[in-house]
């Protein structure tokens, strides 16, 4: 079986090289990737090329998707799986890109068993086995220094859904302790919810208090963009994310270590 896999891998077409100009532009827009040492940037570039070969980009609402846009999104999508591998994104194949926010109809049932229908305007959405939907306007406007990265956020939902409905508890590695993960995230989530409910300002995006799945997604995007916020405010969560993603952004991004 191992020999058969090796043959199949050799027969697969190699990913197309990423043009240097597009790669440099994507790095400029992704501080964490730009701050990586050369060997890691090379590894990330190869993974990004594999991602571009494996996933399709589908335009919506009249947007024209350029190669530079594809590379920018693919690079950000590969940041969380740099030391995990592309197999963590198996089970879905398409990215739908809108020029701006998009409207969806949502149906949910409350605790009393009453079904509700509502219309929401979203900038991103990830369906467990379906496409990842993104707003290009949001991607262009976000500020990584403030912990914003829509692509990483939605990719975190994809990772969270690998073992069932997203609940902030993705499939952990064998050397990780589920009890430690649960304890760290539960305490941090409860603390953030208390602060938001009390109307106190938080350095972390208060949207993280919406539910455990959003807490994990927001913490993940902040982990890779403004890691000092997680490192200093939620050290136990930072340690669990470091183990899960097998990366240590606080030690990579120079500005993260400033007082």
From TrEMBL:
Highest taxon in the source lineage: Bacteria
InterPro entries: MetalloPept_cat_dom_sf (IPR024079), MtfA_fam (IPR010384), MtfA_N (IPR042252)
Gene Ontology terms for molecular function: aminopeptidase activity; metallopeptidase activity
Sequence intervals crossing the membrane: none
GO cellular component: cytosol
Protein name: Zinc-dependent peptidase
CDD domains on file: Peptidase_M90_mtfA
Pfam families named among the record's database cross-references: Peptidase_M90
């Amino acid at each position: 079986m191992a020999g058969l896999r090796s043959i199949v891998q050799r027969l697969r077409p190699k990913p197309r090289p990423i043009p240097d100009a597009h790669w440099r532009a994507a790095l400029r827009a992704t501080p964490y990737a730009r701050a990586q040492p050369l060997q890691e940037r090379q590894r990330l570039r190869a993974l990004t090329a594999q991602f571009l070969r494996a996933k399709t980009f589908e335009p919506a609402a009249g947007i024209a998707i350029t190669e530079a846009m594809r590379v920018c999104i693919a690079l950000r999508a590969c940041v969380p799986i740099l030391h995990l591998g592309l197999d963590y994104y198996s089970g879905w194949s398409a990215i739908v890109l809108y020029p701006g926010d998009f409207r969806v109809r949502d149906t949910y049932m409350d605790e009393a068993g009453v079904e509700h229908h509502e219309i929401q305007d979203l900038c991103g959405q990830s369906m467990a086995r379906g496409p990842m939907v993104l707003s290009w306007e949001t991607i262009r406007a976000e500020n990584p220094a403030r912990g914003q990265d829509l692509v990483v956020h939605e990719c975190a939902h994809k990772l969270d859904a690998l073992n069932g409905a997203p609940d902030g508890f993705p499939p952990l590695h064998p050397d990780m302790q589920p009890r430690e993960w649960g304890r760290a995230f539960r305490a941090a989530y409860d603390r953030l919810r208390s602060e938001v409910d009390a109307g106190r300002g938080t350095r972390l995006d208060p949207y993280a208090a919406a539910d455990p799945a959003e807490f994990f997604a927001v913490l993940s995007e902040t982990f890779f963009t403004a890691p000092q916020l997680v490192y200093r405010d939620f050290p136990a969560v930072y340690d669990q994310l470091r183990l899960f993603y097998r990366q240590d952004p606080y030690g990579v991004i120079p500005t993260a270590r400033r007082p």
